[in-house]
Structures are given as structure tokens and as C-alpha cells.
């Protein structure tokens, strides 16, 4: 059932974008897993505000300028850098983050005939990893890793996620490091489902968040409302129901 029309002058303006299955896309049921979670959290939070959600598929405009100049109050879903390790990162200096909406496993996708063991970080030393250009690298340079600054791995930047998978297939790199959902979707679309597989152990776990500008005078208050709604969804079991339903749909599309 479609949602009722948004109010003409909402108290809260949210920004998201599409082509990010299974999390956000207007063609998905509930407009995606994360979109449905945000709607549900805002609807159930104490003292709910009227709100709208705007779709802008040019993700490069979201943080700067649309959220930084407060054209929109909140944006979702965004990864959070390691702000303790990189306090000068522009996403740390300019934005505040909600509690995580969900945790995203970042996997190592390898050739079926060239799998390597990944039981500890020592198994990564000397490997060639591909990550798409412009993607985060903070999980490769954590305080307990320093893989990049110490030259322990070779990082290859692919043009996009599909390019990284192609590099794996050609044997130019040992693994592509992308999130489980994107990797599973691409291997199916590219006809590589049996040729490229994710290793069992995630390389890292990254949260997806709602963000607001630090310059927004009510930004922290708005995030508190999101957090309260998320907690209530979990307490009532609705969070698990929403996530499970979208996960089941996602898995069925891969069969």
C-alpha cells in the first residue's frame, strides 16, 4: 500500500537516494529496508514530527551541499568513518550520526578456484585488494591494522564495484572488498555467481546511519528522536520483522 502524501510544510525534511538495494530504492517494497525502518522509527518515536522524504539519486550532492547547508534536516543511509582515528575527516568534522540503522558486512569476494584462508588479519598480509574508487578505506587503516601506512597490502582502486569483481576474475587482485548485498547482486547480474564467492569471515562490519549537520540547531534533537524510535521498534519486535522480510525478499531474488 502506498504511503499517504507528505505534508506540504513538514517539520522535518529527510533526504535519500535510490539504486542502493536492498536499503533504499523507490521501486522496492517499502522503498527499501532502511527507508522502511526510518519511516517506522519516525512514526513510533515519542512526540513525532511531520516529515517528508525527498529522493535525489545524485548521491554526491547529499552531504555537500544539501545536508551541510541545511537544505535538508537529515540524510540516510550513510557509513560513519572511524572518527577517533581520523578526526579531521570531513564527515567527522561536519556531521553527527544516529545509532546504527543496521550493520553491513564488508566481505572479501574471491575467485572460486583461488580462495585463501581468512581466519585472522595475518592472512591478509601481502594480498592485493580491490576497492572501488571513492569508497571508504578506514577499515583497512584501523589502529589495530595500519595495512596501508605500513604497506602490508596492495590496494587497487577499481572504477566501480563491477570493475573490482572483473579484476578478481582476471587474477589481477586476490579479492574485491565490497558489502555482502552489493557483491551478491553484482555476481548474479554479471553471471559470476559460481566463479566468484565471498569468504565466510567479513573483513569488517560497518553501520548505516542517519546523519545531520553539526551546524543544525536541532540536529542532535532530531537524531535523538530517530534513536528513540529505533529502540522502540526493537523492543516491540518490529525491527526484526522489517529486516527479516526484506532479507527474505533479497535472498529470493538471488535464486
List keywords for this structure.
30% helix; single chain; 7 helices; alpha/beta; 255 residues; 10-stranded mixed beta sheet
Class of secondary structure makeup: alpha/beta
Largest sheet: 10 strands, mixed
Overall 3D shape:
globular
> Helix and strand string, N-terminal first?
EHEHEHEEEEHEHEEHH
Mean pLDDT: 94
Share of helical residues: 25-40%
Name the poorly predicted regions: none
Cα-atom radius of gyration: 19 Å
Per DSSP E runs of 2 or more residues, the count of β-strands stands at 10
Distance between the termini: 26 Å
Strand content: 15-25%
* Number of helices, where a helix is a run of at least 4 consecutive DSSP H or I residues: 7
Question: How would you explain this protein's 3D organization?
Answer:
There is one protein chain. With 255 residues, the chain is an alpha/beta fold. Helix content is 30%, strand content 22%. The chain is built from 7 helices and 10 strands. Helix 1 links the parallel strand 1 and strand 2. The protein is globular. The chain starts with 11 loop residues before the first strand and ends with a helix.
In a few lines, what is going on in this structure?
By secondary structure, the protein is α/β, with parallel strands linked by helices. It has helices at 33-44, 62-67, 90-94, 161-170, 180-189, 219-236, 238-253; strands at 12-16, 51-55, 74-79, 95-97, 102-111, 128-132, 154-158, 175-179, 196-198, 204-213.
